[in-house]
Give the backbone structure.
Amino acid sequence: MAIRNIRMIGDEVLKKRCKEVTEITPRTAQLIDDMLDTMYERNGVGLAASQVGILKRIVVIDTTGEDPIVLINPQIMETSGEQSGQEACLSVPGKTGVVTRPNYVKVKALDREMKPYEVEGTGLLARALCHETEHLDGHLYVEKVEGELMDAEDLEEE
Ligand code: ZN
């Protein structure tokens, strides 16, 4: 188990476009394991490789705590509907803001054996698929927040 350092907003690496993965080397496999460990350790719903400083198109997501999804070179194929809700990011600690996202998202990706597959989700999973895919293109959710970015603690007290 290895926990990697999470890069914080303001770090240039978070603004860069990640590169396509062409093969799973032992280093890449280790990166994926470390990303999962890091996401669970920090109680995150998702993590993109750029958040641990690696510019590869790899995302891990788990919206339930028991169903890890590994997406390599993910591409959003289909979206529908709309949902508006609180979003947060391990690279923007202590903050939250309202973002409107599609309520349904279908993604095409490779699994950790580089086999193509599809993931579709609604609600939180749809939100996570959008949020994490955008990390790979150098974007943070704060660019899309409607109104003000809020302190997460303040929200919990309401
Ligand atoms: Zn994020």
User: Anything to note?
Assistant: The pocket of zinc ion is lined by residues 89-91, 131, 135 (CB under 6 Å).
